[in-house]
Amino acid sequence: MKRSVRARAIVIAVVLLLSVLGLTGLPRSVEQVKANLRRNIRLGLDLRGGTHLILQVRVHEAVKARADMTIESLRQELRRAGIEFSQLERNDPQRVEEADSIAIYLRGVPSARAGDLRQLITQRFPMWVLTAISDTDYRLTMRPSELLALKRETVERTIRTLERRINALGLTEPVIQQHGAAESTYQILVQLPGVDDPARVKQIMGTTAVLEVSEVKDGPFSSREQALAKYGGVLPLNTKLVPEMRRAGEAGETWWLVSRVPVITGEDLRMARPSRDEFGKWETDFTLGPDGARRFAQHTERNIGNRLAIILDNQVRSAPVIQSRIEDQGRITGAANEQDAADLALVLQSGSLPAGIDYLEERTIGPSLGSDSIRQGLSAAVLGLILVAAIMLVYYKASGINAIVALLMNGLITLAALSYFGAVWTLPGIAGFVLSLGMAVDSNILIFERIREELRAGKGVIAAVDAGFDRAFITIVDTHVVTVVSCAFLFMFGTGPVRGFAVTLVIGLIANVFTAVFVSRTIFNWVLFRQREAVSISI
Amino acid sequence: MELFREPKINWIRLMPLGAALSLALTLASVLSLVLKGGPRWGIDFRGGTLVYVKFRQQPPLDQIRRALMGRVPGEITVQEITGAREVIIGTEMRSEQELDRARRIITETLAERFAPEKGKLDLNNVGREVLAERLREPLQRAGVNLSEPQLQELAGRIVEFRDRERSGLLGSVDELAAVPGVTPAVLGVLKQEATLAPFTIRQVEIVGPKVGADLRQKALMATLYALAGMLVYIAFRFEFVAGIGAVVASFHDALITIGVFSWLDREISLTVIAAILTLIGYSINDTIVVFDRVRENLKVRFREALPEVVNVSVNQTLSRTVMTSGTTLAAVLALYFLGGPVLNSMALALLVGVIVGTYSSIFVASAIVVGWHNLSERRKKAAGSVAAAPVSKTKEVARKVGRAAR
Fold first, then answer.
1. What CATH number does the domain located at B11-41+208-405 have?
2. Which of A179, A397, A494, B44 could form a disulfide with B270 if both were Cys (CB 3.0 to 4.6 A apart)?
């Protein structure tokens, strides 16, 4: 028995040491202990203050863009192959949920050319599936595997772009990650500790920042209808109508007819920065990379006297007349102030979003609430501990100390485990911790009650302790497994704080099996071993 | 100290009484839910905007309501957190498009209505960056020369003092004299440049209707799956009837807790759902302790009838049941009274759940097992089977249960 007590004591000491080290690290000074504690006990947003956002990627926009590209090249291929058709267009669903229903419709193909069409699609457009609606009409839908890949890629690219933008703002420890199932919800979770006015960050994140510099074919027009009327309702091939951004105080609209294929895009940008024009107004200057600069130079040289449209997020910012050959410089005018110009430079530098985003949820916790919550949570935890300890001491006398030791160790191990896993403390997490204090003593109570029963039944002290632990162990396993099962579902379906609660509770429960059974038993053995003849026990 | 020394209470005889009480409580819960058109879902589940504003004095609820009336679309609720001088201003939201609007209008209206001096820097609602920005030039003019890092640090200290020491609300600018680095000259600049609104915005929650519906479904799924998971585990470890008993008992607990929330007009938030799931676990926990003892006792007392064995088992575990509920209640009470407004609802759910959960493991879970047993006995007798059924039945149960235990 002496040896088993010693072996057990060593195990306990190692666990204790690991727990303490997990929290304090290997410190060299008192300040370092404090710093390490602050680093290892990580606080969630609800305790330190900050903003939590859930946004949804408009993946249907990316699918539509892909369909549009396909329509363009299909039109060319059909012409090259000499296959006639009367209409080539796609449907236009407006909601994310309908992304899968996007299809291209090809109508009026002579039935004699059906075989050629099929062959063309399989060879040139393997991503698409051709279905005949009638003799002459067809529907093209994206292969499910391709569609899935496109949607996933859109979400991933959005996350990467948002990361670049947020990192450029210099915020500390932001979290940007996929939220929910990638295949069905397209949601992204963004957590920004310390940000208590998210308006500007949201603006920066939400800008799609698709920059195009395109040739102006015609314009300006005072309305869309006027432009359409000029061309008899059908726009010339490969052109589109784009409105000009309205500035404050300006009445009326302006529309430009521009080339669908831009001269340069945001991808060609090497650098962007805010600056002032000759009148002191803020603008954003950009510099092109070598490839874009070559194309830009060629185009501007050939088109002196024509207009160029600088289009940002499908709005014309300005449409200057080309005065001379331009190599690699350009500017976007129309910024309201310095911040505006700088923010635009930032989003241009970080690349465009593959699709727009919608905000679904926003929670902002002010720092004062966070520190109040910590204070209240801690005082609840301390009072809870004192109450539980008092009850145990009064009811089980010296054995109560045993339970309290187990309880304190439980708390220490839980703290350390959370720090090892890199988990964060949230307010519900603290609640889970306080609750697990109450439930942790349950194991002790089960065992103590059992020992009392065995003693009443006339067993000797050692036999009673043995029987108490053995019998209660089965029950303890059953109760713990069941609670872990419910926590598993909480974790699977829960979000943020609720998950924190589940994690804390589960870790507390596992620590509890160790402390209430293993540690507590060791203490009993040690006490019994010290008495030569174990005849009494304080319980 | 011992509260119960081998108690000999006849629980079986009390069970009809307990069943009546359970039925009454369940009916009351259902009644309240029906009368009030379902539970009162929190913002997490219905979508909307909540702005938490803390005031220095007693918040003027009527003034706030009147100031906002007509400016925010839809229904506005202005609710006070009792004892905290804090109000929660809430609006509904119909689509994600208006996500930002309500918050902007609410903050603007509050500033217009309650901020004493317009255009000045509001020290109670300013962040570190803006504070540093606004102090840079006035400080220079006053002859206080600070380097940029020093300025940022000063701003950081002021904001931290406000948030940590004063819970976000300063009463007067003079309080800042306690902040290291705020010299009389700095204080003079602050007094000249800054004003103090009598309120501070503590928290903003905006949940779009899409997320709300999604969360509601997830919460429901989590609860159902958790119940199913436990049913499977108990059916596997004990007996199928035991699983049914335990699951019915915890469902009963969850329903009564939701009923209490409905009667008290409290909202069901995400954390309350978490609490309900936890108390389902707790209730099952309690039930298992009793069932475990029944299983153990059946091995040695196989000559006695099942109801008898259940009664003995409940009595044997009574001391433990009361003690565990007591310690858990103590911890939950600490949460309820000290945990602050955010945890209050969660603590209330746990409070109700611990009490009802303890009661239901005896009067619902065990009662179902006993009731089932009596029913099948009666059916056997009615079918004219040979006497001595009780013994054979318990033997059968003992065998089954014994196998499971092994």
1. 1.20.1640.10
2. B44
A193 preceded by a cis bond (ω within 30 of 0): no
Q: What is the mean pLDDT of residues B108-132?
A: 80
Is B222 within 8 Å of A493 when comparing Cβ atoms? yes
pLDDT tens-digit readout, A375-422: 888 898 899 889 999 999 999 988 889 889 988 898 899 889 888 888
pLDDT digits (tens, 9 = 90+) for A300-326: 888 888 888 888 888 888 888 888 888
Task: List CB contacts (< 8 A) between A56 and chain B.
Answer: 210
Query: Could you tell me the residue ranges of all domains in chain B?
Result: 11-41+208-405, 48-114, 122-198
Beta strands in A373-502 (DSSP E): none
Residue of chain A minimizing CA distance to B2: A395
Query: Under an 8 A CB cutoff, do A363 and B205 touch?
Result: yes
Q: Do B329 and A365 touch (CB under 8 A)?
A: no
> Is the model's pTM score more than 0.80?
no
Say whether A282 sits in a helix, a strand or coil: strand
Domains of chain A as residue ranges with CATH: 2-49+367-530 (1.20.1640.10), 59-147 (3.90.1070), 210-349 (3.30.1360.200)
The shortest CB-CB distance from A383 to any of B205, B218, B334 is to: B334
Q: Between chain A and chain B, how many beta carbons pairs sit less than 8 Å apart?
A: 249
Asked if A359's CB is within 8 angstroms of B96's CB, the reply is: yes
pLDDT digits (tens, 9 = 90+) for A173-195: 888 888 876 667 889 999 888 87
| Contact call for B280 and A486, based on CB within 8 A | yes
Cβ within 8 Å, pair A363-B204: yes
Mean pLDDT for the stretch of residues A342-367: 83
Suggest the residue from A379, A404, A490 to mutate for an interface test with chain B (most B CBs closer than 10 A): A490
Chain centre to alpha carbon of residue A272: 27
> Does residue B406 have a pLDDT over 50?
no
β-bridge pairing B121-122 and B194-195: parallel
CB A260 within 8 A of CB A217: no
Chain segment B227-273, per-residue pLDDT in tens = 888 888 888 888 888 889 999 999 999 999 999 999 998 988 888 88
Q: What ipTM was reported for this prediction?
A: 0.80
Reduced 3-state DSSP string for chain B: CCCCCCCCCCHHHHHHHHHHHHHHHHHHHHHHHHHCCCCCECHHHHCEEEEEEEECCCCCHHHHHHHHCCCCCCCEEEEEECCCCEEEEEECCCCHHHCCHHHHHHHHHHHHHHCCCCCCEEHHHCCHHHHHHHHHHHHHHCCCCCCHHHHHHHHHHHHHHHHHHCCCCCCCHHHHHHCCCCCHHHHHHHHHHEECCCEEEEEEEEECHHHHHHHHHHHHHHHHHHHHHHHHHHHHHCCHHHHHHHHHHHHHHHHHHHHHHHHCCCCECHHHHHHHHHHHHHHHHHHHHHHHHHHHHHHHCCCCCHHHHHHHHHHHHHHHHHHHHHHHHHHHHHHHHHCHHHHHHHHHHHHHHHHHHHHHHHHHHHHHHHHHHHHHHHHHHHCCCCCCHHHHHHHHHHHHHHHHHC
CA of B227 to nearest chain A CA: how many angstroms apart? 8
CB contact under 8 A, B343 and A376: yes
* Interface mutation vs chain A, best among B218, B221, B278, most A CBs within 10 Å: B278
| pLDDT tier for residue A533 given thresholds of 50, 70 and 90 | low
Q: List residues bridging with A331 in a β-sheet.
A: A285
Q: Which of B201, B225, B331 sits opposite A489 (nearest CB)?
A: B225
User: Does B288 sit within 8 Å of A369, measured CB to CB?
Assistant: no
CATH number of this structure's domain B48-114: 3.30.70
